[in-house]
Structure formats: structure tokens, C-alpha cells
Give the backbone structure.
Amino acid sequence: HSVEVLESVDSTNDYAKKKAKELVDGSVIISLEQVKGKGRRGRSFHSGKGDGIYLSIILKPGFEPTKAPFITSIAGAALVNTFNKFNIQTKIKWPNDVLINGKKVAGILTEMSADMEFIEYIVLGVGINVSGLEFPSELKNIATSLKLEGYDVKKLSIIWQFIYEFELLYNLYLNENTSEVVNILRNNSSVLGKQINVHYMNQIESAIAVDINNQGALIIKTQEGEVKELSSGEISIR
Ligand code: BTN
């Protein structure tokens, strides 16, 4: 692996995308701060200096683009395993948020450059709120940090553990094995069995989150009793 550590950057994902062509599979970019940290759906990700871990991993797998959404699942499972190693219990809010006591402690943003059959690269971005004590007022009720929850863990220890856990599960996936990841997602889900809202482009649908299938897709049952499979998307718990 090559690992590059930056003092500050707009977004490690954007930086990784700019350098993706010249960097090999498995390269890691870490920054101490992001001045334009990105969340999903055009949202920002609070990334104050020294408050958290902001990292991106460049992946160049040989598999087809339809298999890419599972990378987010692998990262979520690797985060849960990582936190477990430090005796921290977390839950995954499918597909890409990791929660402690119902509040977000880590987020995942996966971006890809691909055509119909070939992946040029995937940038897996992970943000973990480690030691921040202050969040902007609009985030106070929905975001937290390890420190705020009473956990004091060194950033470097988390970074190495996460890379280790991710690599293990990623290699299983390269060998067509999804069950380990899916078991982690199922056993540590904050949404299974709950009433949820599914957010589409300009519409919201009420449903129950029933299961997670072997591809990491969320199985939902709508109010009309229709069973659907979401391979990615945005949900909220009602
Ligand atoms: C989300 O909450 O919707 C996803 C958050 C992802 C944040 C990480 S921090 C490192 C990487 N670079 C970014 O700009 N975003 C991701």
C-alpha cells in the first residue's frame, strides 16, 4: 500500500479521485482536516481539524460495476468490527452510517468511475468522529463522537485496525464470499424490524425493513404489502 497523510485538504475523496489514475489499488489518503468534507446527496461532512479520521481508499477491483455497492457494506461491517475491538458497540443504519446510541459516529461515501462493464476505480471514503466535542447546532441531535460517548481511542489505532478489518472482508468478497459481511450487517442493524421511510428523488414511501439479502440489499415491505429490494438508497427511521 501507499499511504499519504495530508495536513489539510478539500475532501480526501476528491483528492483521491484526482490522483486515482496514478495510484495503485489499495492506496490510502488520510487528512487531519477537510475544508469541504462531503457526505452523501450533496451534504457536507463536518471535518474539523483533529476531530476525526478522514480517509479514502482507492480500489481497482476486476469485478463488474454492479458489484460496487457492496463496497459500502464491507466498509460498514469493517467499521463495526473495528469499534468492537475497542469494546465499542455500534449499529449500522443501512447502508452507510454507523451509529452509537442512535447518533452518527461514522459515515461512508463511495464514489466510482466506470463504464457499463469496467471499473476504472472506486474511491471509498470513510469519516469517523473521534475526538470532536462540538458539532454545529443542526447536527447536535444526530451526530456524536467517540469522545462524547466516553471512549478515548487513539486515531492511529483506529486507522490501522480499520484498514486491517476492511482488507480481510474485501478479500473475502473478491473470492465471492459475502456471508461474513452480511451477517455483520444483519446482526448489527439499527433498521431491521423497524418502520422506515424510503426517500426517493421526490417521493417518500413508508415501509418496514424486513431483511438484508446476500448482496447487502435491504428488503422492505411497503404499506401495500409489496416486497421490494433496495441495493442502495436513503432511508430514515420513523
Ligand atoms: C455521509 O455521511 O453521508 C458520508 C460521509 C463520508 C465522509 C468521508 S470523510 C472522508 C471522505 N472524504 C469526503 O469528502 N467524504 C468522505
Remarks:
- The longest strand covers residues 103-114.
- The pocket of biotin is lined by residues 11-13, 34, 37-40, 43, 45, 54-56, 107-109, 125-127 (CB under 6 Å).
- The mean pLDDT is 96.
- Residues 3-187 form a domain with the BirA Bifunctional Protein; domain 2 fold (CATH 3.30.930.10).
